[in-house]
Design brief:
disordered N terminus; Rossmann fold; four-stranded antiparallel beta sheet
Length: 303
Amino acid sequence: MVEKSLFSKKELDGHPGWIALGRLKRAGCSGVVADYDGTLFGPGCGTESVARLIYEAAKKMVPVIATARGATFRRQQLKSIIEATRTNRLLKPVYISLGNGAWIDKVANGYIETIYDNSLTIDDTKTIIAAYQSLGIQLKPEDDAFRQKDLQFPWGDLLSPEYLELSQQSMGVWAEPIKLTLLFGQTTPEVLRKHHQTLSQALPRYQVSWGGKPVIDVSRKIMIKGKEIDGKLATAIFISELEDLSLDNIATFGDTPDGNDRALLELPYGFTNQEGYFGRPYSLPVIGLQAQRIYEAIYLLMT
């Protein structure tokens, strides 16, 4: 949590991102929707920092974490957020959107309630795995190291044995009901974009998302009023309607404006910790580590 401004006045004068934050602050920011990895969570900002930020933000606005993660987020971060709501009795509920909008939990007063579930079936999962395997991706052992480590974790109630078994049987695949993560090893962004396009065409019933890393996530498509919509954007729309908020008074944050944060950051007040963006999204002033830029911006909006 940022306690004191890390920016100097010189850095802020005329900065488009800072001007936009000031405009939203004056209008009144009623909600924050933020990506997790690379945005709230990263070097210098661990799980305790995230929980504390969410606690502080919930005193003034509705905080939403929108991540591509599923079971690994629950294992790593969810408990600390639930505890914060139990011990501190937040004024606003906290929402957790997993699998790029495929699943949404509401956390309040130490309790968690699932309010949206668009899970994949086992048949869905097998269809996606077959499309991935048809690409003929060759992974090196080091490319699969993190997945192999996760396979050894005692997941218990966090992950169904059926999906865990499919992961064990399929090299480069992490399967869970919320979404599938497909590994592509050390490759170029251009090659990954090509694979993304190929899978999108092969899996027209599913949402195929790329978050900037050499992985692609696949979940069920989300429809609003008969129209397909990006999952993270759908999260913002769904919760704004649920909490009676205006999208014009919500701040959104992400680290992949050309990846799975793109649609979310196209809302009127979208911000990124990447450089070179001057409106929808706005780049934040460059300071310290990337996650610190997000914390500083949220700190401004809630003080």
